[in-house]
Design goal:
Blueprint lengths: L9 H13 L4 H35 L1
């Protein structure tokens, strides 16, 4: 597994660590899950936009 370096403000990192502790997860696990959730949300948003654009195109040419 690759390692990365991420810079964030101390107060934000303290919140991340507090949440990780509350959920009994490692910091890395919590951040990975947050990124997975973000990526799924973006994919869903892009798919919806593509569908909307296709409908508009159909209206224009149909």
């Amino acid at each position: 597994m690759a390692k990365i370096l991420v810079t964030m403000p101390d107060d934000f990192l303290n919140k991340v660590d507090g949440l990780a502790l509350t959920e009994q997860r490692s910091r890395s696990e919590l951040i990975r899950e947050a990124l997975r959730t973000y990526m799924r949300r973006i994919s869903a948003s892009q798919a919806k936009a593509a569908s909307t654009n296709a409908e508009k195109l159909e209206e224009l040419i149909g």
